[in-house]
Design brief:
Elements lengths: L3 H19 L19 H4 L1 E9 L7 E10 L8 E9 L6 E10 L7 E7 L2 E10 L10 E5 L6 E5 L6 H13 L7 E3 L6
Antiparallel strand pairs: 1-2, 1-8, 1-9, 2-3, 3-4, 4-5, 5-6, 6-7, 7-8
Length: about 190
């Protein structure tokens, strides 16, 4: 039987190992992350998203042209969502990078909380803190994503260049959710 002390040491070692692989998290930008504001329909969330802005994270350092694509996986496992994140390193003309992961809905979260993995069996929290309304295409037009620590934040839109009204609304909503706007890094996107 393993002692509590040895178990705590093992957990600390795994945590340090993971931090070394994905880098240390940034500063806490929200010390009281709220629960998601609305339920999320998976069908309305799937598809292509463009990153409007984020809290800079080491695994995304210097990324521009960031996109995320969510689709249903054709598998019988409990991870039913395929996630493909991509970006250009350094500039919109930089090296193209892509990472494929998987996600699963958290029971009892009305679809607003997911667990996402890009690294083996290790899953991180992904909370859709708020989202826009469905458009004519049946898809949400924006979302604000975070997680419980308050160190990560993403703002996603369906267009690479959101108009001034949406940009202003996203900034206002991020602030209302308790996030420090001074930590936000706006993402450069190609013209459509």
């Amino acid at each position: 039987m393993i002692s509590r002390k040895h178990f705590a040491c093992a957990v600390a070692l795994v945590t340090l190992t993971l931090a070394g692989c994905v880098g240390a998290p940034g500063p806490i930008g929200n010390s009281a992350v709220p629960e998601p504001a609305k339920p999320v329909s998976l069908d309305a969330y799937l598809g292509t998203w463009y990153e409007y802005g984020r809290y800079e994270a080491s695994f995304q350092k210097d990324c521009e042209g960031v996109m995320a694509q969510y689709s249903l996986r054709k598998t019988n496992s409990d991870a039913k969502i395929r996630v493909i994140n991509s970006c250009y390193k350094g500039s919109l003309e930089g090296e193209f990078k892509q990472s494929t992961g998987k996600a699963k809905l958290v029971d009892g979260s009305d679809g607003a909380k997911l667990k996402v993995s890009f690294f083996g069996p290790f899953y991180g929290d992904y909370w859709v803190l708020d989202r826009g309304q469905k458009g004519e295409d049946g898809l949400y037009n924006w979302s604000i994503v975070g997680e419980p620590s308050g160190r990560y934040l993403w703002m996603l839109t369906r267009t690479a260049q959101p108009d001034a009204d949406l940009s202003s609304a996203l900034e206002q909503r991020v602030k209302e959710l308790g996030y420090d706007w001074s930590l936000v890094r706006l993402t450069k996107q190609p013209a459509q």
